[in-house]
Amino acid sequence: MLLAMGVSCRELVKKWENSISGTVGSTERVHTEKGCGMSLDEVIEECKLFYFVGQETTSNLLTWTMVMLTIHQDWQERARVEVLQAFRDHQPDYQVLNHLKTVNMILHEVLRLYLPGTMLVRTTQEKIKLGDLALPPEVELLLPVILIHHDTELWGSDAKEFNPQRFVDGVANASKNPSAFMPFSLGTRTCIGQNFVMQEAKMALAMCLQRFLFELSPSYQHGPFPLLTL
Ligand code: HEM
């Protein structure tokens, strides 16, 4: 993407180092093919954001997936059978990863129960009416997505249990409300990395399943806790 914007990697790293050390600020414009300009500082900030929001979220997703697959050995075995049928002991192929249905259902169920970002935060810009509430500007709203994901009215009586089967007919049919699943948020601010992360997680999980059997450590104590991420 950055190369398409006409910035060489070396140039970007140099500017980035300078921006971190605070020696240089750049308002130089970088032009995309469509002609809309971003300053180099803005591009660098976007890159930092990608590192910040892309690393811990993804590692959380993979960690909770491993934990769930150790507790639910039947799902670990189903996932392994699917992966071995698709790739045997070969390097997972990018296109075929899209067809791993069981692995996809497992990742969705983990993102439902153990979503990395448990809350969304929004601030009102102007006076608005939200349902029965009349809100002034500058009010901070916390949306506890984790509660929506655990709501028995939406997901059924087994809402708090790990059951990837609920995603067998896709995300829209997994609950009573097609929008109830929102680990990546919804609307215009939806996560820009969501397709990337699903591919990345499938790749990592497939490679682990090809090589290892996972078991839970006897000293493990289940205690999810939100501290920025879960
Ligand atoms: C499991 C992994 C991930 C989860 C659960 C996740 C979740 C989210 C959520 C909920 C938001 C919206 C925040 C809000 O509206 O307040 C968001 C935004 C964003 N995410 Fe992710 N994310 C993940 C991985 C990634 C990755 C890998 C990248 C980039 C490589 C990424 C890049 C971004 C960016 C740039 C935004 C801001 C979009 C904007 O405001 O326009 N995310 N993410």
What does this structure look like?
- The protein is mainly α and 230 residues long.
- The protein has a single domain (39-211), classed as Cytochrome p450.
- The protein contains eight helices and six strands; from the N terminus they run αββααααββββααα.
- The chain has helices spanning 9-21, 40-71, 73-87, 94-97, 101-113, 145-149, 152-155, 194-211, and strands at residues 29-31, 37-39, 120-123, 128-130, 133-135, 140-143.
- The strands form three sheets. The chain has a two-stranded antiparallel sheet. The chain has a two-stranded antiparallel sheet with strand order 3-6.
- Strand 4 (128-130) and strand 5 form a beta hairpin.
- The longest helix is centred in the N-terminal third of the chain and has 32 residues, at 40-71.
- The radius of gyration is 21 Å and the shape is globular.
- The two termini are 30 Å apart.
- The protein binds protoporphyrin IX containing FE.
- Protoporphyrin IX containing FE binds next to helix 2 and helix 8.
